[in-house]
């Protein structure tokens, strides 16, 4: 009987837990309610009506006793319609079924994806075209770049406005005053600045102090760095405490900047990002730069991704959106911001590296990567120990060798240089440095291949990272003597570094987990060791080298740094081809991209293998060549509507998004996504047992009126690729021509096959990359 009672009690507890789990969470949290397109012809009136109607809609869902929640956190009314508000799960569910609502989703937190680079790009990797205009020669531009990020530090010399004309009359934005920020901080270069106080986390709590929230001023540095990379003015003798010295400039130094502070160091509210995109379009920007993204692990679909939603409507209104691909590489399926209407950027290195020599007591020297301004010299050696050998009491050896917090015996490492391994990605280089600095160690030698290509900035603390091969020799030396010693020398800059570009180890890889029939990322751009403007460093001891003034520049790495390179390049092209649409500029940068390095060999990754398009996209941008692409692929609104149809969205939602009487093709399927007019080709599945798959593309001639292009195909062994017709003849009356590409994989290798189709007319080189998965 007692056993029976215990059994029944267990059943009761289990059922109670099921009920608790199944019950919607009654605690309100911020949600985004997306309601599709706005009506641009009646913006002013529509804005007032929609705000009223949105409040009315909210009041129909929220109980009267909680009337304080009947408030819009953000209201979207220009490029698209909707709002964000505090809702419970059940209220959100009720709203999602309401007529006119496209999607309802919890406000997500998105993460920040954090000089010589422009010279490197402009040089065409050492093969500069004579007679081609350079960035410096083009001095006047009314292109407006909206940078959605952590704000801006207006005093930076990168945002001076000498030589720049009056603010374009079409600019409708504002320069918001706030804590430590006045209207006079804006000028003819920095023409606008906005901030958003309603920055919430998923728990509903605001993430910033009041002083930091209530100002466009950048307290992180990320936004200042990205803005100056895209459009910073020329600054002579820029450097980071003597490193990377030269002229700092953005890709379009005469373009205007509008800063939208939607993020903090902890991340960015999706609802706030949407508001910033809506504002930027209303203000009159030409290009929006977003070095931010959702996690690659839990990617929502496109109608629950705030960047994808905002970018869709930006594209509809002629505004290009450029985004970073993410920093979750080198694993596949990690790329984010993959909607076809987003220009997605991977990261590469440039021909500059920062090396710090490690000198052992036996005279051997190893060149490690780092940025450190230590005062150590060759004349004095320090005791050298391996973290595993100086573990704290009861600490596992595996933790000590990785220099976990609390794993080392401080008495045994004070005054020593400590060797740590980099086996656990959860313990960052910054944490290891803090652990050893706190223990009064002299310095750190880090062994590991992960992020070896990305120089870690250790300030004045002696730091250097070597690969596994060099690390093995250092550990052998420690084991060979009782009195091992070493020193770590301050960083030296190495220019002309080869090979470059290579794909950065951290750069997120394709294919896209959401839409594998679109090749992502799109392109690659410099994102490793980039010098750009920065907020002045803190007064924390060790952050500024002794005897130096605080630097107004910093060296940062990430796809965050690659993204504004493409933004700046796009602004440069638009300043010369003002009537080109976003997709034409995007196509020009894609079909003219470089696929070789400065050794004149195919681009590689950090493991020295040839890189594939899931790592590089179509290749490294070449802005000068993109000025004259010959042919472009125009991806028009109809293509994006068909993408939504093929992806499987309902006709009702698509009509709400486009405000057009859209009818999807009868036989819509995901496979047909490969057919939208994109500048690259991706096929998720090519069945080797079936007949050839045929893809259609249409090109527009933007070169000489009379031109003849011949197709050349480079295909992997076994994959049969045919182009029909293989000759395109353009004349005064023929500007657009369609062609078909067939793929037959009966003899092809299984898995992804990569190749290219190039159209040549003797002057132009129109390169289209394809990725075909054979099963």
UniProtKB/TrEMBL annotation:
Q: Which InterPro entries match?
A: Peptidase_S8/S53_dom (IPR000209), Peptidase_S8/S53_dom_sf (IPR036852), Peptidase_S8_Ser-AS (IPR023828), Peptidase_S8_subtilisin-rel (IPR015500), Peptidases_S8_3 (IPR034197), S8pro/Inhibitor_I9 (IPR010259), S8pro/Inhibitor_I9_sf (IPR037045), SBT (IPR045051)
GO cellular component, alphabetical, reads: apoplast
Q: Could you tell me which Pfam families the record lists for this protein?
A: fn3_6 (PF17766), Inhibitor_I9 (PF05922), Peptidase_S8 (PF00082)
Gene3D superfamilies for this protein: 2.60.40.2310, 3.50.30.30, Peptidase S8 propeptide/proteinase inhibitor I9, Peptidase S8/S53 domain
Location comes to: Secreted, Extracellular space, Apoplast
Q: Which UniProt keywords apply?
A: Apoplast, Glycoprotein, Hydrolase, Protease, Secreted, Serine protease, Signal
Domain Inhibitor I9: residue ranges: 31-113
Per the Swiss-Prot or TrEMBL record, the active site comprises 149 (charge relay system), 222 (charge relay system), 560 (charge relay system)
Q: Signal sequence span per UniProt?
A: 1-22
Give start and end of each Subtilisin-like protease fibronectin type-III domain: 675-772
- Region (Disordered) residue ranges read 206-227
Give the GO terms filed under biological process for this record. Answer: proteolysis; response to symbiotic bacterium; response to symbiotic fungus
Locate the compositionally biased regions of type Basic and acidic residues: 208-220
Q: Which family does it belong to?
A: Belongs to the peptidase S8 family.
Q: What does this protein do?
A: Required for arbuscular mycorrhiza (AM) development during AM symbiosis with AM fungi (e.g. Glomeromycota intraradices).
**Protein's name in the database:** Uncharacterized protein
Organism this protein belongs to: Lupinus luteus
Q: Recite the lineage of the species.
A: Eukaryota, Viridiplantae, Streptophyta, Embryophyta, Tracheophyta
């Amino acid at each position: 009987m007692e056993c029976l009672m215990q059994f029944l009690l267990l059943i009761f507890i289990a059922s109670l837990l099921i009920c608790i789990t199944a019950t919607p969470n009654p605690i309100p949290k911020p949600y985004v309610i997306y309601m599709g397109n706005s009506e641009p012809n009646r913006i002013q009136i529509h804005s007032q009506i929609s705000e009223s109607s949105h409040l009315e809609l909210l009041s129909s869902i929220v109980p009267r006793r909680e009337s304080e929640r009947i408030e819009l956190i953000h209201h979207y009314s220009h490029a698209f319609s909707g709002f964000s508000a505090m809702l419970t799960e059940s209220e959100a569910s009720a709203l999602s079924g309401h007529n006119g609502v496209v999607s309802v989703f919890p406000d997500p937190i998105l993460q920040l994806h954090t000089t010589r680079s422009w010279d490197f790009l402009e040089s065409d990797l050492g093969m500069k075209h004579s007679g081609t205009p350079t960035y410096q020669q083009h001095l006047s531009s009314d292109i407006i770049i909206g940078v959605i990020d952590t704000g801006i530090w207006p005093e930076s010399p990168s945002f001076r406005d000498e030589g720049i004309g009056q603010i374009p009359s079409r600019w409708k934005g504002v320069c918001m005053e706030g804590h430590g920020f006045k209207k006079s901080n804006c000028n003819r270069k920095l023409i606008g600045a906005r901030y958003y106080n309603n920055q919430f986390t998923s728990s509903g709590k605001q993430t910033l102090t009041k002083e930091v929230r209530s100002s466009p001023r950048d307290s992180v540095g990320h936004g200042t760095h990205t803005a100056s990379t895209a459009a910073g003015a020329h600054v002579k003798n820029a450097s980071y405490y003597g490193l990377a010295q030269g002229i700092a400039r953005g890709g379009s130094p005469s373009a205007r900047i509008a800063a939208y502070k939607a993020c903090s160091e902890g991340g960015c509210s999706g609802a706030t990002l949407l508001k910033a995109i809506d504002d930027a379009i209303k203000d009159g920007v030409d290009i929006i730069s977003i070095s931010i993204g959702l996690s690659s692990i839990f990617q929502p679909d496109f109608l629950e991704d705030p960047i994808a939603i905002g970018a869709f409507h930006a594209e509809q209104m002629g505004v290009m959106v450029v985004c970073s691909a993410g920093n979750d590489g080198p694993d596949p399926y990690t790329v984010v911001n993959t909607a076809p209407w987003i220009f997605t950027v991977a990261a590469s290195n440039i021909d500059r590296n920062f090396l710090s020599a490690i000198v052992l007591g036996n005279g051997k020297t190893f060149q490690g990567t780092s940025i450190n301004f230590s005062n150590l010299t060759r004349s004095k050696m320090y005791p050298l120990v391996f973290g595993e050998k100086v573990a704290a009491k009861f600490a596992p050896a595996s933790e000590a060798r990785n220099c976990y917090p609390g794993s080392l015996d401080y008495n045994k490492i004070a005054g020593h240089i400590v060797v740590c391994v980099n086996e656990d990605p959860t313990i960052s280089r910054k944490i290891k440095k803090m652990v050893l600095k706190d223990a009064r160690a002299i310095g750190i030698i880090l062994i590991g291949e992960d992020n070896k290509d990305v120089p870690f900035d250790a300030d004045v603390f002696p730091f250097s990272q070597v690969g596994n091969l060099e690390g093995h020799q250092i550990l052998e030396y420690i084991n060979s003597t009782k009195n091992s010693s070493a020193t770590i020398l301050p960083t030296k800059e190495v220019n002309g570094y080869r090979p470059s570009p290579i794909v950065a180890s951290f750069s997120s890889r394709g294919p896209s987990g959401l839409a594998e029939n679109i090749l992502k990322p799109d392109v690659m751009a410099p994102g490793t060791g980039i010098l750009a403007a920065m907020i002045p460093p803190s007064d924390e001891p060790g952050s500024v080298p002794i005897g130096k003034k605080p630097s107004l520049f910093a060296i940062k790495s990430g796809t965050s740094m690659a993204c504004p390179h493409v933004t700046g390049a796009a602004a440069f092209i638009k300043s010369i081809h003002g009537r080109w649409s976003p997709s034409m500029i995007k196509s020009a940068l894609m079909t003219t991209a470089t696929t070789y390095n400065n050794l004149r060999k195919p681009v590689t990754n950090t493991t020295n293998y040839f890189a594939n398009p899931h790592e590089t996209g179509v290749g490294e941008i070449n802005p000068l060549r993109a000025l004259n692409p010959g042919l472009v692929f125009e991806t028009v609104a109809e293509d994006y509507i068909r993408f939504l149809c093929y992806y499987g969205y309902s006709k009702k939602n698509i009509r709400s998004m486009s405000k057009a009487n859209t009818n999807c093709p009868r036989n819509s399927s995901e496979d047909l996504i490969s057919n939208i007019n994109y500048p690259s080709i991706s096929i998720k599945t090519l069945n080797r047992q079936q007949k050839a798959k045929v893809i259609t593309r249409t090109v527009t001639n933007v070169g000489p009126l009379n031109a003849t292009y011949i197709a050349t195909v480079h295909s992997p062994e076994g994959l049969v690729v045919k182009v029909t017709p293989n000759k395109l003849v353009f004349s005064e009356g023929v500007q657009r021509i369609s062609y078909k590409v067939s793929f037959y994989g009966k003899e092809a290798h299984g898995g992804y096959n990569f190749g290219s189709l190039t159209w040549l007319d003797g002057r132009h080189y129109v390169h289209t990359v394809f990725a075909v998965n054979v099963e």
